[in-house]
Model the fold of this input.
Amino acid sequence: MLVQSPSRIFKSDLTFWKKENACVIKEIFTDKGNSNLRKVSEIIVDENGTYDFQSQKNGIILLIVLYGEIVINDFEKPISTEQIFTLKSSESNFLTLKNNLPSEKADVLILELKSKNPESSFSIENLNLNKKNTLIQISKNLEYPNFIGLYEGRKEQEYFLYEKGKSVFGMVINGAFEFQNRLMETRDAMILTEIETLEFEGLSENALILFLEV
Done:
């Protein structure tokens, strides 16, 4: 029998969107303790709109485009749903996200983490989700184990944490999962503590989940 570990659950239908200039913002998670995960936000940017935000010192930014296409600051190459952007810096950074498409909105997920080795670097990596029912590393440039997976209904998986004493942040991007014996649906998130093994099961077709050890 699976023993439930302590958790904090962030239900999507209990969080609110906030209008800010040419976008709407939802704060999914904000650290209130001493977590290595500082903040998780979802931003929907209007057509040709922009979103400005400032990252903290000694941090890592992981940016995932859920739909649409964006340009960050003066980088010439746009970032689409098939790519991941990461930024690591010892200094605070001011970033501008611009919707690169004139006829549709852009939806962006931003995860902000503490950096163990603060040094300045950035990368744009490809993300291929063609292989279903398996965990894929999101980025090679994060200092924490990080995974994303596209699952069919009734597909189960067991994941063993790399480090004892770590917490797991999990989020359902789309669909429904049973996540450590708890139901999670689109945009629901959870922090699990005192855990060594993570069990989850897809409950819908093309269900997409991500999680990090933090």
